[in-house]
Specification:
- The protein is mainly β.
- It has one domain: Sandwich (Jelly Rolls), CATH 2.60.120.10.
- It has one helix and ten strands; from the N terminus they run αββββββββββ.
- The strands form three sheets. A five-stranded antiparallel sheet has the order 1-2-8-3-6.
- Keywords: Dioxygenase, Iron, Metal-binding, Oxidoreductase.
- It comes from Nocardioides pini.
- This is Cysteine dioxygenase family protein.
Length: 170
Amino acid sequence: MTATFPASPLPGIRRSGRTSSSTTDRLQAARTALAEHLATRDPLAHVDLSVPERTWARVGTGAGADIWLITWPAGSSTGWHDHGSASGAFVVLTGSLTEYVWTGVARAATLRASTVREFDGSHVHDVVNHGTDTAVSLHAYAPGLAAMTRYELVRGRLQVTSVEQRGETW
């Protein structure tokens, strides 16, 4: 698998002025963890593409980041969510995904195989497989993913519906 990591400025990162050194360090940790994982393992080796539901598994740690592998059957979606305070990066390994990013309005981008996305801790998105085949992606979160906030779009605004903590539901 070859992935091309974006050069600065990093796409998908909303900035209100300067990027903090903490955010830069977290993004670098996520980027490094993905690159190291891809260089030393075949993330698709044990993937079952016939599973009918979206699945996710923590497959490792590295460079101060958690690494997760997600399979996306056709029609599956994350729903609107954030990653707590974690910054991160993910690469689409097979198939394509559509990422809807919330910036006060929803903006969509189609991410094809080998596409890498990076994001900071303020990133709220919904990722969907609109394709007909199962997609697979590899994600890194730095620091490790400890919480996720779930949202619902109500009358043009996102409202918090729940906060999930590591160990409770995943």
